[in-house]
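Chapter review: from sequence to fold.
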Amino acid sequence: MFRRSLTLIPCAARALARPRSLLTTRYLQSAAQPPTANPDMLRDELKARRSLKTLHPGRLRSSDFVDVSNMLHPRILVDNDRAYFRYGACGISGLVPFPPNARGFLYYHHDPELPPTTGEIRFRVTPDNDVAGFECGKDLVGLNGSPWAMGLLTLTKTSFEPFRRRLVEDGLFEPALMQKLVERWKGKRRLLNPHDRAVHYLEQPFTARLPQGLRISIVTPDGIGSARHELIFKDRRAHVNAVPYSGRVLLRFERSRLPEHTGTRSVVIRVLKILEPIEVVIPGYDMRLPVPKEGDLIHKHDLRQVLRPFSIDLDKTRNLELRDIGLLYPKHT
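The token string follows.
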């Protein structure tokens, strides 16, 4: 079930009355309709006299306050340029509108202990446009239960250039690295979903849904890529030839410590947590492929039908859909 509700951390002596600010006229726009074809959006632009001038959390002003409540594809002025963003999408049903009370400040979030590519634009919900309320507000929650964010994989798209330029001008992102990521994205865009949360470093947790298998985007200072592998959870015996389980798991790549991988750039995959119960979907299945368990490595049968931890030698793999994992494990480490 999708989480679309917000919780505000109360601020003492702070009125909850909604101020007049940009984007006060609400609208719902079809994802298939060009923005300029919607008269409501044109009226919103005329009302957007003020524009977002910074994404630096320490430099925000009351004029940077925005209200995107119940909107599907809101517009905003970043400096003097139009910019668009969205809350999320749900399968074939299309875009999902922002929740009610989605009012606050867009800002850049980055943990300095992590790679620069982990930075993202978040939305801090506040009761009004008083910047003093930023610290006691709370980040908007996305459809996946994590903080809603526009990550760098999203920001590399051409339509997000105003946000990129603002990050660089705010001194929040190194311009040469930003340009490098934009160029790398152009060469990979057909393989990537820019709205996916990306994996940025080797042991970063990521989710996988069975029976789909491994499907991730990768963004590091060394480049952009993707990894796809439908066979990780698949029983390849001729009479089965399917993934016998359903569910959702939290995984991570790890450097292999197995003796046979000494001196190689090999990775294994560990199950960190079962997010949705694992269920057998093949009637009468003999359980030959082990059920994923928290704390265990993922196992597969090798060519001799011996059960071993699934591993990838990044320097020898012939699977083109797995080679980009090497971005997470550079040769110089």
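Two observations follow directly from the output. Helices lie at 39-47, 152-155, 161-169, 175-188. Residues 35-191 form one domain.
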